[in-house]
Amino acid sequence: MTAAHPTGATASEAGERRAAEERDGAAGTGDTAHVDAVRAALAALDAICDPSAGAVPRRSARDGDAPGAAPRAAGPEPCPPAAPASDGPAPAPARSRSAGSARSRTGSARAEEQRSTAGAATAPLRDRFASGHRAPAPPRRGGDPVKGLLHRHRELCADAVDPLEIAAGLEAHGVTDRTAARYRHRDVFSLAEEMFARTDRTPPNGPAAPVPPGPEEGDDGSRGPGAGPLLRAAAPGAVCALAVVGAEAAGGALRIPVAAAGAAATLLALLLALRSGPLRAGRRATAPARLWTLWLIAYAVCGQGLVDALARGGPQGPPALTPVPLVPLAAAVLPAAWCAHLFAVRSRRRLSLSRGLDAFAAATRPLLLAVSALFTGALGLLLLATGVLVPPGTGLAGAAALGVLLFLARLLAVHGFPGTASAALAAACAVEALAPALLLAGRLPGLEPLARPVEALAGSAGPAAVPVLACTAAALALLARAFALLTRASAHTP
Amino acid sequence: MVTHGGYPYAKGENRLWCERLVHGLARHEFDVYAASSGPEQERSGLLPLPRHARLAATASPWAPPEGGAAPGRRGRRRAAELLAELLRAVCADGGARPDGPAHGADGFAEALYGLAELARTHGGLPAALRSEPALRAVESACRTQGAHRALRDATAADLLRGADALEHALRPLSFDWYRGGALDAADLCHAVSGGPGALPGLVAKRFCGVPLLVTEYGVQVRTHHLAARGDVRAPAVRALLAAFHRRLAREVYTQAALVTSGNAHARRWQEQCGADRTRLRTVHPGLAAERFAAVGEGPEGEERTLVWVGRPGPGKDLVALLHAFAEVRKAEPAARLRLFTTPPQGVRGDGPAAGYLAQCRALAAQLFPDEAEGAHAVGDNPVSFEEIGSPEAPEPADAYAAGCLVVHSSVVEGFPATLVEAMLCGRATVSTDAGAVVEAIGGTGLVVPPRNPRALADACLALLRDPERRARLGAAARARALELFTAEQNLTAFGGLYLELISHSPVRRAAEAVDAAGDPVPFAHPAESRLPGRWSGAGHVPAWASGPDAAPDAKEVHR
Questions:
Q1: What are the backbone dihedrals phi and psi of residue A196, each rounded to the nearest 5 degrees, phi first?
Q2: ipTM of this predicted structure
Q3: Nearest-CA distance from A159 to chain B in Å?
Q4: Do the beta carbons of residue B396 and residue B390 sit within 8 Å?
Q5: Do residue B323 and residue B338 come from a single domain?
Q6: B442 vs A74: CB contact, 8 Å cut-off?
Q7: What is residue A30's predicted lDDT score, i.e. its pLDDT?
């Protein structure tokens, strides 16, 4: 940054100005060069006491401005040496020395000279300096000037991961290279490096110390996912129960519209519950998964009757509907939301506790199992309660398997694997669709053997065995897959 | 021109400078490629571009990655391998001294360009970088020998966040700017920020041979560290990112044909980060001088009035200024201090600034009671807080015109624009030695150490009592500022750099050398710049140059 020379016609004028400037600078420095000189002498003393800091006195004497409390013309323009002498009026010799030559002097010589020229204006400064008031501490003590700085910026140093970070922080606190020179360093970078190297960075409590939960983990597992999502999650169950009871109560022609309205309302409540809260799958939920889910639910309502009718050689008239299992299924949205929330929160905590991905996977597996068991238990309780209220044998076992399957599928979709979830649901659908299809195919001449396994199954375990078998198999497969997928850390991106 | 979180958006850093550059260099054609820094910035709208510039493309690196084409299994595995290689270079380098030999320098560059290639051919890089294999790669890199200590203690959550942040930083690799007549058709790529903002330039340089010019007014590594200070993220994440940014900065500095900085301070940071000294240029930011011409040429302002102009904040240390002024008042009871605050602009809120200003007002009221001339006159405070844009000072120049001496008390300072404005106004200045103040002021003003009200007061008094010296310093300051810190100077410098780079490293596109039928076009690329010899004609070749070691020298010249 030396390109400041005015050019051409203004050269002599500028030279004159510069010479005047020179005087200004010298006069300005005169005030407190005295202080400078004393400091320099002290620094020299320091160096004598502390042989390890050999280069110091030279440096602080050269820079001259180190702890100065004085106005000075900053970094005097490097000007052509001839300019002041030829163009400007020659100032008094003691003051006309350029800063360069003044700097080359030793501190003590400068002190001698400046003491004679120092004006009355420095008197208060001198007093202050003599009493030790306000003088920056570091250069006055021998030993270790950086120690105080380390203490002042201990947080910065403790947090820093890089010397450059300390350098940036120091600069933000106003430490410049000229300040760094006081600490016997060439620049801020080397000062920062020393500070970085000297900071004790061992964590105060061992590596097993619990990591404080981050801001995004505000609510822990003990608290629920919040009142709003819980209410929304409870809505489908309530609406569905109302609809079923209403449809049962309404007789005759009124029954079908009431049932349709109830189904629509339940569907709406379900969509609302899944759109936010812990069961939200974002944009990742795919349309096929929704289709398969609807198919599975529809099968739970009318599939049993259909298979039963087909196995008996029917159907005669519309198949019998079993809407009762829908009520516990819809009600199970609430425990499902709770379990999904629990899983998300707990696994996130394990994320910040476990060292490494394998440790995380190992810690998450039991959690996944526990959450699945918890949901199965909750669903079982709901089904048992339903079984007490209504006559048994209405496909509650199939509903249990279906509920677990849907829960696992949703959990996978929430954590970014909608494809897997969709595939499992599709497989269950296929098996369920296969049963009536085989029964029908068996009526064709020559294809009777096809229908036999289904007939045998329906005969021995009842028509409800088909969905139980399909959903259980799919749920187990999904659980196995979840063990591999949901224990990945990448499934738990915040 | 490639910008990141800046120019064409109405709210952004470097806005004024870029706008002036694009409008000023009308002989060049600009294609502006802009990446925004957030939704707020995108909503703020775009500035109008001149006729010779067009907004070629925008990108939103902050947005969640679009689903799009998910990479196949092979693509994901390849991405993870490359990421592992990249991070191995980063982590092995993390503990090394910044100026030491660059371990794994090639590994980093190769992996980086490998990722860019993958993004160009397969797409879906963001998804691949968030997948499990990528996470495994991050983990294995953290556990390598020689990695930072904090990295070795990384938890799974740290790994996740680290991978996420890396993916964000590498998002520019996935932009669709590098083919089909976009950046590959440019003659020169000017990246107006370093770090991830210069990644498009790196890719264009690598795959299309477009020379890269990087301008950093705030050094990216430093900005990153300062931003990371307020970060609550775990040390492991910060360590990983710091090492990555440093390594990336070094790669940018290595690949860039020229790196310009705004002041010597920024240049030192660049050197510290491994920039080659010979390719660094300092181009001082320029200010529009004509706004201040009237004041600069006009008479001196009111006697015994000190002026401070700036945006209040703890870094400006107004408290020290007030204390210094108290000292001045003891010696010169008639002195006045007028503080002009510039209204906050840009995306930053004014919450802390307003708080600090209120604090300073309280201090001023405490230090200086209102005074009146006599028992029957209405009193006034010697310290007044005013705002630029108010009737007293509609323009910044009016603020400087109000006083005879401009004081600066900053503790922390980048490039002191207000100081340069004062210089342009021909005012004598007293400033503290912070940031690039000394570099800007040269010898044309008084400089005192920061946090030293007494020294500040002494310097102010010295100038207040000496009008002649004030006039001299002011004239010198104005001459210096007109020479160095005008907008024209900035434009000329960049115009020169553009021409220099374009002429020294012209882009040679294979497509230009053949015509429509596929036959070579004669003289599509002038051969002159490849001649092994001197440009200046067949001169005398000195004896030392004819030896065997003359060849690399010639190559150096004509690269």
A1: -65, -40
A2: 0.78
A3: 7
A4: no
A5: yes
A6: yes
A7: 40
